[in-house]
Write a structure and sequence with these properties.
The longest helix is centred in the middle third of the chain and has 19 residues, at 213-231. This protein folds into two domains: 1-46, no CATH class; 157-423, PPM-type phosphatase domain (Phosphatase 2c, domain 1). The protein is 21% helix and 17% strand. The strands form two sheets. Strands 1-2-12-11-7-8 form a six-stranded antiparallel β-sheet. Strands 3, 4, 5, 6, 9 and 10 form a six-stranded antiparallel β-sheet that branches. The chain has 433 residues and is an alpha+beta fold. It has helices at residues 41-44, 117-122, 213-231, 238-256, 260-265, 317-323, 329-334, 372-375, 381-387, 396-409; strands at 160-165, 168-173, 183-191, 197-206, 274-282, 287-292, 296-301, 309-310, 345-346, 355-359, 365-370, 416-423. Residues 167-423 form the PPM-type phosphatase domain. It comes from Streptomyces cupreus. This is Protein phosphatase 2C domain-containing protein. InterPro entries: PPM-type-like_dom_sf, PPM-type_phosphatase-like_dom, Znf_ribbon. Residues 88-106 have a biased composition (Basic and acidic residues).
């Protein structure tokens, strides 16, 4: 078997003149295949191979010898020369319109090769697009949500939320004084067992003195709405379904007390995660409300000549004073203890007492479900009716936006959340105009 002894005589690569070692089959610098010279002994021994037949007549251009002057020799451009192959056969004249590289035909397909995992591991991960401050429009926002340039806190996702679901809508806003939005809501449309339509809204207000109030309100609103949407189509009476929804919301908030995140954020002056809850379910002829805490439901008829009404009673110190006959309503709500709540959802709450009530309005109207961030600026039913737009039944989202704007114009001292629902529930598929 031949051991390719001829390659031992090669001292330089024929392609790049790189020095070679004995036994090299490829040039380490340019990768030239030295084994291709195995069949040309003359070339391996360092002498040029004889020209092929007919090649002697080819006039190869030679380099110009430099003269005594400093002027360099003339440069031949590729387009100046008549191309010829090494076997003496002529080639077509070069295309003066551009450079053309003649090459061997390429295969139609190339074998796929898996990437080297070592190279892939060295590739840097793509950098996330840096968030720009909404205030100065120049600084980069850090992971804590503050601008590194001006220090401005950036808006969170829950700072302002709007949702429209068929004929109902809700809006929630952080307000002008709080650093985050601790309110949450859920709205939905479904059908009862007999196929008639039903709409619902849940509004929750996180207790600011508790741990993770924003998580509490979100967990409660989701648990309550999920329970209602699951129970109503299976024939559960809306008032019973509302009771079960409040119990489910209470369990969801209680579960937060055992999570590691609560232990990490707990401070000596804080209680377990807690929130209030208020909700409404509307069918073709029935209005059901449920609540724990001081968030409210108002009834506003389309015919504003008919009286509006507040449909809930607060779980608060002021309400207790009025109910006990110790103060009138004006005196109780003027007291600094007025808004201290006596009922809430949370692991450290007193015994849970869900409140539910059913109504059968005799005329069309709208139901306003809201936190105290709104009703602090329109407390009486008549005041609420005055700020509810006349077309609220057909434009619920616009009406919810107007009501939130009313609270912000009044000072926006608290988070404000409001849902607007028409009564009776319109047929399935109907939406706002």
């Amino acid at each position: 078997m031949s051991q390719m002894p001829q390659q031992a005589a090669l001292s330089k690569c024929p392609s790049c003149a790189e020095p070679l070692q004995s036994g090299d089959r490829f040039c380490e610098k340019c990768g030239y295949d030295l084994s291709a010279l195995a069949d040309t002994p003359a070339a391996v021994n360092g002498t040029a191979p004889p020209p092929p037949p007919g090649a002697a007549d080819v006039a190869w251009p030679g380099a110009s010898e430099p003269d005594s002057s400093d002027t360099p020799a003339a440069v031949h451009l590729p387009a100046d020369l008549q191309g010829s192959a090494s076997d003496g056969r002529g080639r077509p004249p070069a295309d003066h319109g551009g450079v053309r590289f003649d090459r061997a035909p390429e295969p139609d397909e190339y074998p796929l090769q898996a990437p080297d995992p070592r190279i892939a591991a060295e590739q840097p991960a793509p950098a996330e697009a840096a968030k720009v401050c909404v205030a100065c429009r120049a600084g980069r926002v850090d992971h804590d949500g503050y601008c590194e340039n001006c220090g401005h806190a950036q808006p969170r996702e829950r700072d302002h939320m709007e949702q429209e679901c068929g004929p109902i809508a809700a809006v929630s806003d952080r307000g002008l004084r709080h650093h985050r939005n601790e309110d949450a809501f859920a709205v939905g449309c479904t059908a009862l067992a007999d196929g008639s339509p039903a709409v619902l809204a849940i509004v929750c207000d996180g207790v600011s003195s508790a741990t993770r109030p924003d998580d509490a309100s979100l967990a409660a609103s989701r648990a309550a709405s999920d329970t209602l949407l699951a129970a109503l189509p299976h024939g559960t009476h809306p008032q019973q379904a509302m009771h079960e929804a409040i119990v489910a919301a209470s369990r969801a908030v209680n579960a937060l007390a055992g999570e590691p995140a609560t232990a990490r954020e707990h401070a000596p002056h804080q209680n377990a995660p807690a929130c209030t809850l208020v909700g409404a379910v509307i069918t073709s002829g029935l209005l059901v409300v449920g609540w724990v805490g001081d968030s409210r439901v108002y009834w506003v008829p389309v015919d504003r000549s008919a009286p509006p009404a507040r449909l809930t009673e607060d779980d608060s110190w002021a309400a207790q004073m009025v109910a006990a006959g110790l103060m009138n309503e004006a005196e109780a709500y003027a007291d600094e203890r007025a808004h201290a709540i006596t009922g809430w959802l949370g692991a450290d709450a007193y015994e849970l007492e869900p409140h539910t009530a059913s109504f059968k309005p005799d005329r069309p109207g709208v139901v306003v479900v809201c936190t105290d961030g709104l009703w602090n600026y329109a407390e009486a039913a008549e005041e609420m009716a005055d700020v509810v737009p006349l077309d609220a039944a057909v434009r619920p989202l616009h009406s919810a936006q107007v009501l939130v704007g009313h609270a912000l114009d009044g000072g926006g001292h608290d988070n404000v959340t409001v849902a607007v629902l028409p009564f009776p529930a319109p047929p399935m598929g109907a939406g706002s105009a």
